[in-house]
Hints:
Blueprint: E1 5-8, H1 14-23, E2 25-27, H2 37-43, E3 49-52, H3 60-64, E4 72-75, H4 85-90, E5 94-96, H5 103-118, H6 121-130, E6 150-154, H7 158-169, E7 173-177, H8 184-187, E8 191-192, H9 196-202, E9 205-208, H10 222-225, E10 232-236, H11 245-254, E11 257-262, H12 273-277, E12 281-283, H13 292-310
Parallel strand pairs: 1-2, 1-3, 3-4, 4-5, 6-7, 6-9, 7-8, 9-10, 10-11, 11-12
Helix pairs in contact: 1-13, 5-7
The structure holds (2R)-2,3-dihydroxypropanoic acid (DGY).
Residues 54, 77-79, 102, 288-289 line the site of (2R)-2,3-dihydroxypropanoic acid (DGY).
Amino acid sequence: xxxxxxxxxxxxPVAVEQRLQQDYTAWLNPSDQPYSSAELIAxxxxxxxxxxxxxxxxxxDLIQQLPTSVKAIATFSVGYDHIDxxxxxxxxxxxxxxxxxxxxxTADATLLLLLGAARxxxxxxxxxxxxxxxxxxxxxxxxxxxxxxxxGIYGMGRIGQAVAQRARGFMMEIHYHNRHRLPPERxxxxxxxxxxxxxxxxxxxxxxxCPSTPETEGFLNASRIALLPDRAxxxxxxxxxxIVEDDLIAALRSGKIAAVGLDVYQNEPHVxxxxxxxxxxxxxxxxxxxxxxxxxxxxxxxxxxxxxxxxGKQPLNLVKIG
Length: 322
Ligand code: DGY
């Protein structure tokens, strides 16, 4: 029996590429250069499925031009805001994603951002690397304690809950807003705010953990920032589009927001130069799920799902469309 053909748009961890080559005719991308839309359409000719990543923007226009051979799109991500789901639905394409396996790594990275922003890690590192550090000083780079502070979590799904679990270990008080209140065993003492405005008012630290949708895009804008306590710290490891960056930058400049820890940006990979130059920003290049274990698990999960699909079974991690 001939193996199905998968077009793989970026380099993947070695074990994942090996398994893809074993189970499929895998068209890999050894250069790891992202494909343009035209290249992606051209390279898809004859492929049964595409294994894409966040850098591939599957617009309605692009999806409509995919060859009929393509039956599925597997995205190497838990987020799928880069795929036009309505167009995929219209073309009857299965869309597979990676929920669950990146929860712990992303929650760890969120705490890294939270602590890095609170303790001015970026400034400290730059001082040390510059060769200008003169030795410990009692007033040097004083940060903010996290202990005893209120952490507001916007979006209490898997990752939000894993962040809450870690933050409890740092003795933070957990508050959250979610579409639905969690049952007590999953809430674990966290304070639910039905109105997001009430969450903002108590968030000494605010961490965003919702998907990017037309409803959540631009969520953190000037009027919502104004509700935060003065000198709040904002963390975002979800999607850059959740924040109006110009409003955030204004608040970082005025001191309304003391610091920010960001892993994601409105216009990736272009990062607003103001964010790069302000001292009170702790910035990572979208590393939330970037561990060997997690990235390997993400790839293996996609292959399990593709194997199910091509065996005529229902894949476990299908995005529900329509
Ligand atoms: C995702 O999976 O959506 C993350 O943003 C990247 O791993």
